[in-house]
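TL;DR need structure tokens for one chain.
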Amino acid sequence: MQPFGNAEQSHRSALISDREVLLAAKTGDVEVICRYLQSAQNINRQILWNGQTISPLHLASMVGNISIVEIFIRLQVDVDIQSGSGISPLHFASEAGHQKIVELLVKAQADVNIKDEIYCSAPLWVAAQNGHLSVVKELIKSFANVDSQEQKTGCSPLYSSSQNGHLHVVNALIKAKADVNLERCSGASPLYIACENGYYQIVKSLINARANTNLQESVNGSTPLYIAAQNGHHQIVDLLINSKVEVNLQTKRGFSPLCIAAQKGHPQVASSLIKAEADVNQQEIRGVSPLLIASQNGHHKVVALLIKANADVNLQQVTGESPLFLAAQNGHLQVTLELIKAQSDVNLQSVDGCTPIFIASRQGHLRIVDSLIDAQADVNLQEVRGFSSLYVSAENGHLEVVNSLIKAQADVNLQENDGYTPLYVASQNGHDQVVKSLIRANANVNLLEKANGSSPLHIATQGGHLRIVNELIRAGAEINIQEKVEGSTPLYIASQNGYHQIVDSLLKARADIEIQTYNGYSPLHVASKNNHQRVVDLLLKAQSEVNKEMVPDEQGQRCEAHELSFSAASSDQTLSQKLHSALTESGFVESRAKLQMAAADVLQDILRKRLNNDEIFVVGSFSEGWGNNLQCLDGRTDIQSDIDVMTLLSGRLHHQLGFCQCDDATIVKQAYENGHINAPGFASNPALPSYGTALRPALDQVDAARLCCYPTIAPLQQQRISKSHIPKIELCSLQDDVSSNSFSPCHVVNAASPGQGGYELRVSTSFLEKRMLRSLTTLQGQLFVTLKYLVKKVICHADGFKLQGVKPYHVKTITFRMVEETPPEQWKPENLVILVRRALQMLHDSAESNCKPDNAHGRIMEHFFLSDTALYLKGLNRNESEQILSRIVSTLKAVIEKLPQLLVQFIGSLTPINESGRFYFHPFQILPNLTARLTVKSDPLKYEEIYDVVRECLQRLTKDDCSLQSQENLALLISRLPDCAFTTREALKALACIKFGYQKTAERIVSHCRGHSVNRGIVWSAEKPSAAANFDVVWQYLRSHDSTWKFCFQFDERPVFKFLPVTLAALFPLQLMNKPGCFFINSEALMLALNLELRTIGDFQSKIAEVTQREDADDLELLTAAMFASDIHESKLIFNRLVRQSSQIPATIQAVLKRRWNELTELSNNQN
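>> reply
TL;DR here they are.
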């Protein structure tokens, strides 16, 4: 049988077509079947049907045509003939429940224990699974193996029938002595699965057949009783208890049946287990008891049962939480009342010192707080950090809870370990009503925190909370108090941040405008510097006595203010708007950055699924969203950029001295200093780079090892948080990342500080950096992109200042500092140039301060995240440090001076995105790991499996085998490709037809695809909101459009399609010049080439012109057009495009193009 051809094969000369034969077998047309079987070669012949090869006997057995089956048996057909997927006629008949046909086949000596090739299942298994009792009995009577297991899952006939509730089949198999304890691969027995699904009568039959009621499955260690309890099957639970089951057997995690019943809230099950003397205080490995888990989940009926059974109401889990604590935490009032009534200790503290009233206060559960107060809970107990119930309720703005606690005599001035009071934290977070309540309760408005000596008024001013500032002033807050570290007053802070209303309130309260910070800055100075003109005007108006030497009159003072001002001149403002507009038009906006991040997450997902490894992470600029391409943000990676992939090595876990809190006494803790841990023996080479091309970006692969925890993270320290302008939600996210160490694992890479190569491993904060960059607003992202351009393309580039040492990581650090230090109101389009200048000045000042003779290693700035950690210049020789730093300082000064001209150049280099805002994402073109995987048989094909199916098809096309079996196998493989790879699938079909000699079929396939267009990218207009750009949107695009048509593959040698003309065979696949063994396939270009070669396009020249004019045409599309162009001018356009795209063309193709160029030139000359 040939899957691609039709009447072209000699052996298909019979008058009856395959379709007629199959239809006859299906409908019982004896005459047609008899005519068909007149040819002896047709007796066991198989035909392609619904994607698999079967014989007419298979189909007749499937649909139940006894007369047709009898004819085949009479002609001594092979009754064990197997279809393309290994299924016998007996399988089909058993699955469909055709007992008479099963009987006929068995009498004809069909093998009753034959197994198919997919699942290795026997006919009895299939019949039992589908509940066909008569067939089961017939097969048992014919000595079928009643314990034959399906290979993939290990399920026996008894297991499958128990799973599907086929009681009579179960009884028949038990009667036939089936092994009632035979487990599947996961260790689950027939009794287990019947209990799980709630089949009472089947459970009863299996118990009567002496099934082991205590048999534990191997994955979790669950017993039949456990799974029945979990699913609430109380009658089955009673049945098992009556059979003397062990009621306290625990899973691998230590969960008992009673514990899981309590967790799921099944009171009838819990009652039965308690009556059966289940241990009501049995704990799992984390110390969770039945009462604790029921209290946590709010199952008050189960809680009442357990309390009545004398469960220990104060039994704590490993981390110290009691049942009452968890009920209070989750807001379960009825459970809380039950536990209080049962004499639960209302002041029992967890390991970190938290009490039930503390956690209820933090969560804002007012009625629970009131209940605990009524039960005499201590309202002033503090947890290990010194936080009280009043502190956390004030922090979170739970006003009614605050009022209840105050009424219960909570200490309003109780300070936590760092000196923060409830009033301070409420002022910090802007909870003005809470502040009022605390002040009414006589809270001390002038209590200072310890580290910086700041007051509630300081922190309220810092946050811009006007109403709170006014409340504190009315309550007698000290107006002119200075912080300990910088000497800032509330007025200075308000002036610095441009809070003119707060400045006005402070001035009316007689704030002293002459008080300077310890470095000599006054409120007027800082307001002028930061261009807060309204604040400057207020300060000038309020100034009662002027320093005569500095400013003789008000007009002079205003001039001084303008000299200090960072206010942009009108030219700066104009340039800022132009730069902002150009960047916006080129796609550098938050919503497109989010789409880039989502695409990176999908690429990571595909990579993980292909390699079956969740410890692989796509990191770096491709994942961070902003700096992947400095010309436009459209998904395409700049040829000078790369995709970074980090793999966490299994089995390696480091522990740093001074931070590790792991309990294991056997671990070795390594010294930590300057952002590195002491770990001799590792080479200092964090990344294994590859090189990029126009068709495939560069790749940096980094192996890393886990570090048990993060060291101190500087921006999360209180002294930084109090002054930070990083949004609170992002600080919380960073804190979550640091605390969880799972989604953003701390790790070390093979890199060392200067001079320590081979002795240190560097602590990486790449996930925290990713978090920060992903949180940038449009303006912040545009600042980052502009700075990165200035460093890469101006300072370091051969066409710029040619200065090495400064690297993009320094740009990240400066950007983070700008986000932390710049108030929100300054992030405006008209300030963009000012912000760029300020960032460059920050980099300049940092380099200048480190330009010292003793700085041999080229330290340039402090690490943003790691405390007491330096960043260094890249690739610096020890004896060049001071000289290079001096050059960097002078270069940065020159860049700042020439900034307007350089920004105009940058604007000119930007590429506006097209009207549709198309965003390009071809995951199999940029797939970081090209390792071939075995093609799988999942149905339908998973997206990540498309890559390996296409690769396998290409390999098979290069082989010389043209046998019928080879054709069938390739046809089946190609047909598995889904519609999201439509063009790829049809192109492969056409190639297969050409290879096997079916030219007309190939032409028909190609012609049918002529009106079809691939999806070239995600359409993403400028109006799309950031929230719309997410992981699911990218996946939906990939799966619901013809999006999968670009691939890069790794082959040991170039695949050669010998059946194609020389020009096409040279083009497809295209070898990437600086990536040995890497080849590129563009299915759209291939389909175009086949259309042009097979002459299925009438006006092919217009099609070539369309490709030439397409802005996003890649090298292979342009080369295809060049091969077929018949116009000299069109060819020139194509060659110019290839030059502009820095295309690297293999020598063989260059030779073909040269010949084609000479032919066109000669033709043009002759025409002239």
